[in-house]
Every structure is written in C-alpha cells, then in structure tokens.
Write a structure and sequence with these properties.
32% helix, 16 helices, c-terminal autoproteolytic domain of nucleoporin nup98, alpha/beta, 468 residues, Rossmann fold, seven-stranded mixed sheet, seven-stranded antiparallel sheet, 14 strands, single chain
Amino acid sequence: MNGFMLLTITTTHQPATDLGFLLHKHPDRLQSFPLSFGQAHVFYPSADEDSCTAALLLDIDAVGLVRTGRGQEAVTDQYVNDRPYTVSSFMSVALAQVFGTALAGRCTARPELALMPIALQATLAVLPCDGGASLIRRLFQPLGYTMSIEGTLLDDHFPEWGNSPYYTVTLTATLPLHQLLSHLYVLLPVLDNEKHYYIGEDEIAKLLRHGAGWLHAHPDRDLITWRYLKRSRPLAEAAMARLVLEGEDDVPDSPDSKTQAHPARTDSLSTERLNRVVEEFRNYGAKRVLDLGCGEGRLLQLLVQDSTFHEIVGLDVSPAALKRAEKRLHLDRLPSSHAGRLRLLHGSLTYRDRRLQGYDAAAIVEVLEHLDRSRLASFERVVFEFTRPPLVIVTTPNVEYNPRFVGLADGQLRNPDHRFEWTRNEFSAWAHDVSLSFGYQVRIEGVGPTDPLVGSPTQMGVFMRNVS
C-alpha cells in the first residue's frame, strides 16, 4: 500500500524553461530518486518558453515504513494513517534531497539566475493544517505571497459532518526560487505540526539555515520555531536565542516558558549598532544617505524620523526583505514630507549601480559576512570605487566574541547564512587594505559590551575618503 503527495511549481518567467536550469532537472526527462521512505519522481507536465511546470511526486511506502520501524516515534506506527497521503515533513526531506542545489541558491549553468526574482506559483494538494486556513495565511502572507486555499469536506455524502483539516493551497509570488523552496522546507512541517524523524540539535542548524533572512522577522517566528522543533522547549529556546542575533530586540518566549536563553541587556546590540550609524552620519553632516543591504528597514526607520537627512535610499537583493521594509515603514501612509525623502531599490552590492552615486554617506550593517569570499573584491569596487561616498560605515560580527552568547561554541558562526566571520585582526587587516587601495582613512571601533579578552560583539569600520 503506497501513498502519494504532490508539489507543482510553475513559472511564467521568460524563457520559462529556465526553471529546468534552476532545479537542475531537465524538462524532457522523467527522473526518479530513492528515498528512505519511498521514491521521488520529477517530471514536467508542461514546458515551453511562456510557461513551465515542474512536479515533484512522492511515492511513499507506507507499509515499509511500519515494517522497518522508521519514524515509529512520530506517526507511522500503524498501517492506517493519513501521513503517506498528505504533504508533510516527508516533502521537506524530499526537497532537500532532490532539489538540494536549488534550495541552497546555486545554479551552476546560470549563477545569476539563482538570485533573480521570478514569477512563481506553487500548488500543494492535500496539505494538512490543524490550525485551519487562517494559520496557512498567517505563515505565508508575511512572506509576500498571495494565495488561494480550498478546503475539503470530511465526506462529500455527509456535508453536515463539516470540513476536514486538509487543503489545496496555491502560493503565488515573485521571488528567487531558493526562497520559495526554503519557505516550503520550514513551513510544511509547521503546518502539519509533526515530523516523521527524530528531532535533535542538528535541526536547529537546519531551521536557521533555511530560515536565514526571513524567519527572524516573521511575526509568528516563535510559533514556527516551536512547532518545527516538535515543541521541544530546550531546542526552541536555543533556536530563539540564535534568531535574536539576526537583528531583533528581544528573544520571543516559547509558548510555555518566559525563560530567555540570551544575556539580558537594557538596549539590544542591534539597536546600539543602528544608533551608532545614525550618530556617525549626523556628526559628519551627511544629508543624502544610503543603507546598502537594508533588509527589513530598521535603520531606514530611524533615518526617516530624523529631518537631518534630506534623501534616504535603501537597497537590498531580497524582494521579500524590501516588502517587509515597506510594511515596517508604512510607505503607503507616510506623510508627504517623509515619503518624498525615502526610496527603496532592488539591487546587489556586487554589481555596479549608477543609482547609488552622488550620496554623502553609506552604511553596510551586518551585510559583509553574508557575501561569498570570492565576491568581496566586487563588493569593494562597487562601494569604494564606483559608488564612492565620502563616508562609509561597515559593521560585522566579531567571531571571537561568539562563545559569550548562550548556545554558541568557540568558532561557531552566529548565523548559518554567514559565509565567514572575522576576528578583530582579520577585520582590521581588511579595512586597512581597502583604505589604501581606494583612498580612504579608516577608524575601527567596537559596538556593544567590551570583554577584556575578546573585545565587543560587533566591530565597526568608519571609512573617510581622502580629500584630493
């Protein structure tokens, strides 16, 4: 007795067959992959330049799961249950194994395509959700999706029995494919509220890796963390302590506990960083300023409230982050005196962008460490040679400080999306090399509490262009 679950992904990006490059699966072939719980099949019901649909079909060996004892602890300890027929954590595992390269945001044949926002539509048939359609909306709408949700009756012949907890859901958005896959990877088990495999500390790393860039800002991040980690209080609190390092002020409480697994402080490290940047801008007398890698717009929020700054531009590579920034800044309701001063731009810090030229100052706050080391040279030229503002402020983590945070070991990075984190000597060497190469002077300071052995959690470089 086998069960089947289906996910389809459609794009109208031109040419739509680029979807094959992104997924690393050729549209002209049916491909099958063995999984520990059955098989996965990838095929394309349609593929032309105008529209392309890829299907991931899971063939679940329900009887085999019970006979081998795999997943018994979870929900496969009986022959008759709904798990093999509903889109659940089995699908998350298949996404990681079958579409792993796409999930990681890599495209060997077309590397620029992996980061490109494209029109995407994902359809999930028979999606279980014990919280109903409202929970589905709560989880996906903050990420910028529009959606249709179709419920099903418990029995078509007896409508008076009411609705079942199963839905057909279609999600539509314009975003890079790897972001869609990451959202599905994390949120499908959350909706199902079960996982078919053992949950240990390595699941925290998976959650943070696939939630990088969006989970820390999600309004229901504590609920997502709690359910993803199967309501394990120690694991959830450890994960929440790590999420705070992505820029939020407070660690959210688990549903059953008020314990915070992070050092208490009267003012968050994130807030102190942003205030220091604003202070440097003011002291310099900057009027037209850039927030490069603006994320959800926390620095922009401070800048727009200060009439000192006449023109403010935020740039980010993530359309989802820019949408969150729009909501945070209430762009649709800003008074005209504020709205005319603020712009949000989509773009990358590794490609020259003439829109960024002519500004007094630029801030790059906790962005550097998200770049591949191979792209640092491009970043340096874009910021210090082509954009070339008189004042540049760069902040980045001090890896030496990490063991002072609960849940972080010596040498462990603060965020799975970080490509590297520098020691104080490494950051100093990089900053002075950049200054010499591009005609700047640099001052390096710590941000946050200073430890006599390892320094401050954040290191900040204030670059001043030499007067020619």
